[in-house]
Amino acid sequence: MGRIPLRMGRIPLRMGPSVLKILVWGWIVFVTGFILGVLVATSPQNFDNFDLFGLRAKEEARLEDERLFFRASMVPKTEDFPSNRVPKVAFMFLTRGPLPLSPLWERFFNGHEKLYSVYVHTRPGYELNVSKSSAFYGREIPSQDAQWGSITLTDAEKRLLANALLDSSNERFVLLSESCIPVYDFPTIYKYLTGSVHSFVQSYDSLGSQGRGRFSRSMLPHMKITDWRKGSQWFEMNRFLAINIISDTKYYPLMRRFCKPTCYPDEHYLPTYLNILFPNLNAERTVTWVDWSRGGGHPATYGGKDISEEFIQGIRKSSTTCSYNSQQTSVCYLFARKFTPSALEPLLKLASKVMNF
């Protein structure tokens, strides 16, 4: 029997998207395994330092936060202190870098060193360029990256609170940014805050898409849509509430898991938490003035050409009144934002005449 010749033509190789995906992931796994193998073979120390996708660094940062929050949750409450204790106000600055308005704050703080503390949360590794005599010198706390609109911004706020709570003298805690200014002198602000029976966290029920529309039903049954509140990020609170917020292991995990970027946790966590647990301890308003009249996702910004005596006085004495210790007052705002670096010189010129420092 003779051989039958075989003809083999070209067989076209066609791969669908699923096949390509398998090949790509197979290649990634191979390369990763190869790198790990080389590291282990050359030096075990290299393997210890290897951090795939930064997961180890993120886990270490999370554990560091947990240790900090635990320490802060164990600090004494106000009622545990002796009656002759002199309370301090903790000024907590959440910033992306430098503090261009720091000369104004230096003047504000001058002469009151025993009545305040300063804490600065800036981007990791950044050091403020200030003199050793500055109130801001060496006041940076261990920080992590904080992104606008994400839970990392609220993490940074809690980090500031926790560090400030470790000083048992701190009784009031105010959150500020690099664009904030004081509109009254230190004695006035100190008396206003330490004399208040309420904390100042803006909290209101917003029925639209920017309020209740951000609520996730996945938060049920611990959070209800009728509990959901919105408010300004820039808060002021007393020691009792600060300790409770740092100790919260029920509501904050829900916010982290279900309040995604379009939800903006910094606008909802504190107002909602206080509304659920401590509504009677909150004045439901902020003491930081900001101008949203121009619309958009960010408030109005003011530079040097905008600064005048009339402008600052308009912030200090609002046309509407507010409640302070159950009494009506026209002094509703102690701080204001947002001010650019160009506003510094005009503000310094007006400070002694208008703001009394």
From TrEMBL:
A GO-annotated cellular component: membrane
> What does the UniProt keyword field contain?
Glycoprotein, Glycosyltransferase, Membrane, Transferase, Transmembrane, Transmembrane helix
> Does the keyword Glycosyltransferase belong to this entry?
yes
Where are its TM segments located? 20-41
Glycoprotein: is it a keyword of this entry? yes
One MF term in the entry's GO annotations:
glycosyltransferase activity
InterPro entries, sorted: BC10-like, Glyco_trans_14
Q: What membrane topology does the annotation report for this chain?
A: Single-pass type II membrane protein
Per UniProt, subcellular location reads as: Membrane
Give one Pfam family, short name only: Branch
Its main localization is membrane
Name of the protein described by the UniProt record? Glycosyl transferase
Whose protein is this, by species?
Answer: Macleaya cordata
